[in-house]
Amino acid sequence: MRPSSSSSWSGLLRSCYSTMRRISSSSSYSSQPLPPPPPIPQRRVVVTGLGMVTPLGCGVGPSWEKLIMGGCGVREISVEDLQMGSFDREAQLHVFDQLTSKVAAVVPSGTNAGEFNEELWLNSKEGRSIARFIAYALCAADEALRDADWHPIKQEKKERTGVSIGGGIGSMSDILGAAQMICEKHLRKLSPFFVPRILINMAAGHVSMKYEFQGPNHAAVTACATGAHSIGDAARMIQFGDADVMVAGGTESSIDALSIAGFCRLRALSTRYNSIPEEASRPFDCGRDGFVIGEGSGIMVLEATMEFEHAKKRGAKVYAEVRGYGMSGDAYHITQPRSDGSGAILAMSQAIKQSGLHPHEVDYLNAHATSTPRGDLIEAIAIQSLFSDHANSGALAFSSTKGATGHLLGAAGAVEAIFTVLAIHKGIAPLTLNLTQPDATFNSPFVPLSTSKEMQIRAAISNSFGFGGTNASLLFTAAP
Cα–Cα distance between 15 and 24 in angstroms, integer? Predict the structure, then answer.
């Protein structure tokens, strides 16, 4: 016989009362403190694979060789570089004429060695959902994974491999084109892949999907510090046991009408050297007048390494060890660092402290220096303040590789971290291009390297500072 409604409610109340009594009777357990979390082993992290796409060339070899030889990836831009193909020619020419800066560090495209093959990375069947900044990350990640010889087949290893790739801006050219469609009432022509093409985390997403990596999937967005934060965060994920292997770095492709116009309006770009583009990016030089916008990607493969652990167990090639990672915020201004360099000092100090080294044990420093009058000066002040006698004696070698590559924005920290790792691995400190007359405020012999220098490098720092006062420093040491 079906029970009445009142009897059903009565049964439910009796059940709830019984449950509450059981919970109450076990309250003695809840009064006991929970046990502490299990101890976290201090896992060391090493670099086992490198990949890059830069204005100097596609690939680590071409980029490094051209950098060391004093090559430059900056050139004069054309109307076609503005990526305004959906606009009429008159609009394109008008915008180009209005731009005060007409130089950029562009990734060379083509099918020759050292060139980015657009047919392979952008015009495949998946190309509709892949913007250029995503394609750069896929290309660099492919090289890094092949270099590390990391191609896991077992499910467990895929679950222990993660991705940490960030970007600064995303695909502004897609946004500009979509805005035009809306203004012209052509909404139905908007690509269904518009959103996936502009989301910055889709670079990490596409890499993880291509290789079926199911570990942490992370995308930092911290302006020009993005690449360094992505690598540092990935290293900590390994240290804390979230993954055994991380594919980490940054990517950017913002050579387009809207991005260049925005930075021009901000008065951040170089305008004095439009007729001699290869001399436009000149970090620490007294003739600097702004940065040169660049594009590209830098990706590292990071692995845990201790006795019987991942990298050593599989006999991986080791370039360097990630020994320290420092972060800070200026809490001061949207674009300008504090005049005393305290934000940069704090980030570098934390990286050095975490490494267990003394500032005098750092042999080389890859500066963030973008070729802006104020930014370069303040970073120099910070370096002198932190390293004091070690810097002023000339024992600390430092340079900025942005003279050759321009400023790669969200990819800068990763590309320059790779250059720093290669400096350790190959024993060559790269030069600062276009340093013809060092800023008079620098104290001799505290001047950046104007030529590449062969030297033993046991420990090196790579700096990255971004808009909003975000700072990151990575400290690498020779392979353990």
Answer: 14
For the chain of 480 residues, list the mean pLDDT of each consecutive stretch of 10: 52 57 53 84 92 98 98 98 94 97 97 94 82 97 97 96 97 93 89 94 97 98 97 97 97 97 97 98 97 98 80 87 97 92 97 97 98 96 95 94 98 98 98 94 88 97 96 96
Q: Which residues of 419-429 are buried (b: 16+ CB within 10 A; e: fewer)?
A: bbbbbbbeebb
Q: Give this prediction's pTM.
A: 0.92
Burial class (CB in 10 A: 0-12, 13-18, 19+), 220: buried
∠ CA 334-336-338, rounded to 5°:
115
- Report the pLDDT value the prediction gives residue 294, as an integer from 0 to 100: 98
Would you say residue 106 lies in a domain? yes
Distance CA 377, CA 286 (A): 10
Is 297:52 a contact under the CB 8 Å cutoff? yes
CA torsion angle 460 464 465 466 (round to 10): -170
H-state helical runs in 168-225: 172-183, 194-198, 202-211
The Cα–Cα gap between 409 and 167 comes to 8
Let me know if residue 22 belongs to a domain.
no
CATH number of the structural domain spanning residue 414:
3.40.47.10
Distance from first CA to last CA of the chain, Å, rounded? 78
pLDDT for the residue numbered 369 = 97
DSSP 336-397: PPPTT-HHHHHHHHHHHHHHT--GGG--EEE----S-HHHHHHHHHHHHHHHHHHHHTT-SE
Task: Give the residue numbers marked as catalytic.
Answer: 224, 368, 407
Task: Go through the chain and tell me how many residues it has.
Answer: 480
**Can you give the residue range of the structural domain that contains 192?**
45-478
- Decide if 100 is inside a domain: yes
Strand, coil or helix: what is 327? strand
